[in-house]
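@channel sequence for tomorrow's demo:
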Amino acid sequence: MIAQWLIEARRKFRLDGYATLADVGMDGDFVSPIQMKSASPTGPLLLAFHWSDVETVRSHYSVVRELGYLPDTTFNKVVDRALDLCRLTRGGVYITQAFHLLPHKGRSSKVPTQHIDCSFKAITRHELVGRKVIALGNAAADACRRNGFVPHRSEAHPSARGRDVEEKAIDLARALKSALG
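structure tokens (generated this afternoon):
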């Protein structure tokens, strides 16, 4: 169960130029909608850059409202395959983001470092305490470093180009196994 004060911190966090989960009809008892399926209180924590963008949520609203994520994206294909390799389900991990607002266009939108750090300080750092964190991609790993947090492991972002889903899933599975001890 996610602490209510943490959910409230996410609800209060706002920056000009970005939408909140409430703005797109995705508010709920989670810090990130992906936690509808991935909110283990004890499992490894996968830290990504940000959850989505306004345009994508509106285009796929029924799926994200039901699942909290889009299963057909490369990111989620890699995560699901890595979990399968570890004989885990999404319920065995906790997934969150360094940045908890939504850009208006494009999941790959540039978010200034200071905006990421404001979100990290207000919300994310509290989610990481006492967890074995696997930072997914440079944005997540850099946010950790800038904010004095050392991840258990850093891996390439599951959506990164240049390698196929299986290769990336194998690397992420190794990181998950290491975090599980």
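heads up for whoever presents: The beta strands are 45-50, 94-99, 133-136, 153-155.
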